[in-house]
Amino acid sequence: xxxxxxCPDVTSWGGVLRREHQVATPQWRDExxxxxxxxxxxxxxxxxxxxxRSYGDSGLNPDGALVxxxxxxxxxxxxxGTAILRAEGGVTFDTLIRLFLPRGFFLPVTPGTRFVTLxxxxxxxxHGKNHxxxxxxxxxxxxxxxxxxxxxxxELTPEQEPELFAATLGGLGLTGIIAWADVELMPVSSAxxxxxxxxxxxxEAFFDLAQxxxxxxxxxxxxxxxxxxxxxxxxxxxxxxxxxLDGGLDVAAGRDGRRLAVPMDFPxxxxxxxxxxxxNRVCYSNGRRKAGxxxxxxxxxxxxxxxxxxxxxxxxxxxxxxxxxxxPVSVQREATRAMLQAISDSxxxxxxxxxxxxxxxxxxGMLSFPFEGTTLALDFPNRGDETLKLMAxxxxxxxxxxxxxxxxxxxxxxxxxxxxxxxxxxRFAVHVDPHFSxxxxxxxxxxxxxxx
Length: 452
What we know:
Layout: E1 4-11, E2 18-24, H1 32-41, E3 46-49, E4 65-68, E5 75-79, E6 84-88, H2 93-100, E7 105-106, H3 118-123, H4 131-134, E8 141-147, E9 153-156, H5 162-168, E10 177-184, E11 186-187, E12 192-200, H6 203-213, E13 219-224, E14 236-243, E15 260-261, H7 273-289, E16 292-297, H8 298-302, E17 308-309, E18 320-328, H9 332-346, E19 353-358, E20 373-381, H10 385-401, E21 404-405, H11 415-421, H12 425-429, H13 439-444
Parallel strand pairs: 2-4, 3-4, 15-17
Antiparallel strand pairs: 1-2, 5-6, 6-10, 7-11, 8-9, 8-10, 12-14, 12-16, 13-14, 13-19, 18-20, 18-21, 19-20
């Protein structure tokens, strides 16, 4: 009996690449060894898989093996005194919130969806709206149980096998399977957020707001109208927030009602420059109208898109690209302006355009994405060459600025751009398990078995 089944239509959250994979789904840790042995015997490249919320191809391994780890989703221990949680890698942030928010603990760093696994979040060294104060998730990981392809379990800490530990943090799952991890949680007093919304009319106003807000607010983020032009270039809505000191710890209070669902792929014509421009104008007007202070459920602030199940299907059958860059603080104003100008000129705007500044706290991973500067993240419907040409223009601006792209979001950056943006990539490559690979790694590392 084989552990693997052929799955003909495996895709990422972006939905651009769809290929057949051999997929195994162990339910217990002692099943992982036999799965790995079979993959090696069949000469299949291996990659661990979780909730598959990465947008591009870093979580895909066409013509190879995916080990679906979502069945290993157990909480193993928790010490309220130290706030150290040990959990299996397949547990989702959603589960951790439901279990620990009522006890007064929350994740110290969280991305924009709670439907990611702990191992996936570590493998991508996720960041959140509080980077200026908390950095990336890697700063809160205390230990990792890593299974290599030979079946051996390595217990990694900053002191024990520190190089492999640093390679695994943000290592895109290429160093082995994260079986479990120790993460320090953060105490909170309630399940609601005190939020202030501020409308801003230009890119310069955004930077002023960001600098001012980081002094008094733990969380900051902005939505930007990427099709605005002229003096309005970079206008948008800025949100800044802290955890409320009261309001109760009921998980239901942290949620925002029922989830809607997108039942089918939207037709390709739905997202065009006219509909996106109109949507952005409405969003900007609503932001101005609703500006002020208020309290919102925790999920509405951290995970607004989670309220819509399968929202990625709105981009149609051809899928979408997400483009997320970071540029250094020394040139952040000029480079961000140049990117927004290029997008505005192209007419290929996004209705999900997020602008944020990163602080100076260093990430622990060799391939961690954030550094001090400004990050811009956008979703582009896949329109083929037209979209690829726009992203190539953005690449040139980011590269000239000394910036880089986020592998968890990427599905098309060149190997040269990856290697320039991640100068530690050769130091990292030493720690890649020789039987682990991904479509992303073969593409950017220039390996002979690159898939197309």
